[in-house]
């Protein structure tokens, strides 16, 4: 019986030659190459090219990199050179010589660090299409103005404009911001309505500026405000009319105020009884490349150690104060010499209490805070304070 063999009509597959194999291997190496002046990590998707004296973007970076550190170089112009890195999430171009934010930055960016350059202005088109941007650090530049378009940068949570040359607080800031740092500028005013579109702002840094007075009403729309810094400003405390609205806002606000204007207290507001936590930027602690801004910690708050009598003490009736003074006198009689043991404390209370003679009526919450503070004093110091307060009340 004859066996019938089926003959295939398919042509044989060509076998790769040695040259083809070599090209394939070289191609695989090219895809994973890292420029010699950079260090690459995580499958070459994170590139660190910092502190290399670069005057231009190095060649050979993968197009799918997610993190790029170009800080501490001599870069002056990066316009359009970064546009093809479509997957870039974190860009650090701080400590260079840039005079403007690079154009055509990838729209996938989450974090931009551009501090310590020579930036003079931020135009509306520089950030108009960055819907994914979460943090923008433009501190330590020469910025005098920034222009934001309404309803742009919807994902921006933290904006650092500290150590620049602003004279007034920028308007049209992105509406979902939770942290704004405008410290160490030349700020002298906040235009009405500038802060009305920031319902989620929790941390607002305005210390080390040139404010003489601020209308407290500009802060009234900051419903989520938890912390504001106002110290190191040349407040015009002698002008009571100009400072009255700010003082009224501080007394009614639930936010913690650090550096209370025209006050012996460093911290005021009701929220100082709880921990703040929260935001801060490279002006104090430079976060590691790609760090989430929520985990960037600020320096510990300066402890308030001075003892003072709150304005709410003035709201007690004369009779109540005299009754407390009488019991305090009896206690002192049983412990002679206790009054003279705290001369510095008594003199401090005298100046503080006299300054509060014309103070407005404080809130009940402030009275509770004062009670807690007085309760922590030594009995001798408390007694001396009560006697001193009673004697002043008799002379009013």
Largest sheet: 12 strands, mixed
Question: Radius of gyration over alpha carbons?
Answer: 31 Å
Q: Let me know the CATH homologous superfamily of the largest domain.
A: Ribonuclease Inhibitor
What is the number of beta strands? 14
Give the total of domains: 2
Question: Number of helix segments?
Answer: 6
Distance between the termini: 134 Å
Task: Give the helices and strands as they follow along the chain.
Answer: HEEEEEEEEEEEEHEEHHHH
Strand arrangement, largest sheet?
Answer: 1-2-3-4-5-7-9-10-11-12-13-14
> Helix- and strand-based class?
alpha/beta
Quaternary class: single chain
Overall helicity: 10-25%
Question: What is the CATH architecture descriptor of the largest domain?
Answer: Alpha-Beta Horseshoe
| CATH-defined topology of the largest domain | Leucine-rich repeat, LRR (right-handed beta-alpha superhelix)
Strand content: 5-15%
CATH class of the largest domain: Alpha Beta
- Taking all residues together, what is the mean pLDDT? 75
Shape: elongated
Low-pLDDT regions: 25-30, 282-377
Structure report:
The chain has 396 residues and is an alpha/beta fold. The protein has two domains: 193 residues, Ribonuclease Inhibitor (Leucine-rich repeat, LRR (right-handed beta-alpha superhelix)); 85 residues, no CATH class. Helix content is 22%, strand content 10%. The strands form two sheets. The protein has a twelve-stranded mixed beta sheet with strand order 1-2-3-4-5-7-9-10-11-12-13-14, with no helix packed on it. A two-stranded parallel ribbon has the order 6-8. α3 packs across α6 and α4 packs parallel to α6. The relative contact order is 0.07. About 26% of the residues have low confidence.
